[in-house]
Amino acid sequence: MAKKKINIILIIVVLGLWGTVGFRTINRYFGNDAVNLSSQAQNREISLKKINKDTFELKKIGRDPFLNKQFVEKPAFVASVSYHAPIRKAIKPSPTVPKPKFDVPWPQLQYFGYIKSNNLELVLLKIDSKLHKLKLNDEVNGLIVKKKYKDSLEVVFNSQSRIIHTKKN
Question: pLDDT grade, residue 111 (50/70/90)?
């Protein structure tokens, strides 16, 4: 008997809770559309706190903390302005000494062709028995790939240009 009374009380509580939830949901759809604004919300003034920025001066650092070196600041050179024509001294021409040219020999090159992908073209070039995949204008050991053709390749080394043809088997 006690069990029956507890079940009836629990069923009434659950129906009451679900009835409240259902009433609030339905009341939102079929309730008044007019919105009541309280006079307190309209008359209240909004004040925002303004944060003033703090300014300060940073001093130059005289030492590099990573390399542990001191910086020496050189004074700026101020050129003097003269309204008179400069006095020129006679300069004796010095004999020109030709600069010695150091000819670095070209590395051994073999051109094997190129690989073409969607947006990338690579050149297969063997430089001194090492195979390299290079893009145009890439540099390897002073050697720069300038232009690419189907059967040849233009390379620049020490401001000298050469055309290398494909290796024929």
Answer: confident
Higher pLDDT, 18 or 69: 18
- Token look-up 């043809």 returns 165
CA-CA distances (angstroms) from residue 64 to 59, 73, 76, 91?
Answer: 14, 13, 21, 45
Contact 126/113 with Cβ under 8 angstroms? Answer: no
Q: How many CB atoms lie within 10 A of CB 109?
A: 16
Backbone angles phi, psi at 64, to 5 degrees: -85, 115
Closest to 103 in 3D by CA, of 164, 158, 162, 143: 158
Residue 167: pLDDT band (50, 70, 90) is low
Nearest to 154 by CA among 143, 144, 146: 146
| Global confidence as pTM | 0.38
CB atoms within 10 A of CB 132: 15
Burial class (CB in 10 A: 0-12, 13-18, 19+), 124: middle
**Dihedrals phi, psi of 147, to nearest 5 degrees:** -135, 155
